[in-house]
Amino acid sequence: MITRSDVIAGYKELLDRLPESDDVISMQQAAHETVDAFRANIRQSCEYQAKNGGRPNDPAPSTQPSAWKGGKTITPDNLDAFIAYSDSLGPPSSPQVEHFWRGMKYVPSARVSERLDPFGEEYVAGQVAVYREIARRDVDQQVNELTDFVMADHIAGANPYTHQPPVSVALHVGRVSRAIERSGLQIGDHVLDMGCGWGTSCELMAFCGLEVTGLDINPRFIELVNTRAKRIGHKVGAVQGSFESIPGDRLYDAALYYESLHHAVKPWETLSLVHNRLKPGGKLMLAGEPVNDIWKYWGIRTDPLSVYCIRKFGWFESGWSADFISKCVKRCGFEIEHFEVEPGSIGWIMIASKRG
Asked: Which domains, from first to last, does the chain contain?
């Protein structure tokens, strides 16, 4: 497999820019065994052709008809062909892949009856079966949800993402900022950042005057968040934990899930756990979560990007209807104060407060 340095150097040399994100770097690494194959793929891209006098609007190489026979439907039988052909076109953010994926959906053979109780074990087992059908592995977030990266690059970066373009960073900052704005929190309030990942949300909340404890399952993310906080001087500390296990016994003024709750197999369980770790009236903030109507209640997302990430990396990618996640939050002891869609495909923001 090619290295991260190979990917970054190829983007700089051929496209005059850095890769969009670390996920794109990882996807390029996974898709190409040799540097020559990776560079050949970049040269086929619309972006490269436009920079070198080609036709920037070519949607995909002319080999598509013979390389992919599945039309717009992904099934268990053609899933690997879908992944292979997607990889041959470029990373998920490329114009060729976006064109190929347009209008696609996955049709699982594992069926889940929407007459079942969505909180019940039979319904959960059905959705896990859909995940296993796509991922071809068991749910194991201690293994499947980890991300590797070059620590030094992200410690030194202007922001923890490092390689994402300004417009992408601004999207993240805007979503978290609007959640903070809606929360009504005060200077010095202590927030638990559930699934903090790279730590951008931690840093932004600290910049706004909040004290932050970040929690993540990946020990390398914990190291990154703590090292950057020490360098910058933010009141941020990160601890290793999971949605099912929050270290310590202190109570918090608020908890944030940013682009993270949808990785929980049973979101109502982690929300109940967080409810127990909030002070009376403490705030629950959800931002950047995938509210959609794929399922009546909740389930594995079957759009092509989610299917790609589940099969390629083993990530648990679920989503919920607006009605279900509202009932879920209320079931766990919260009163919803604000819940509406923001710009972007997963731009919903919810603010709720702990009853009692």
From this structure: 4-106 (no CATH), 144-354 (3.40.50.150)
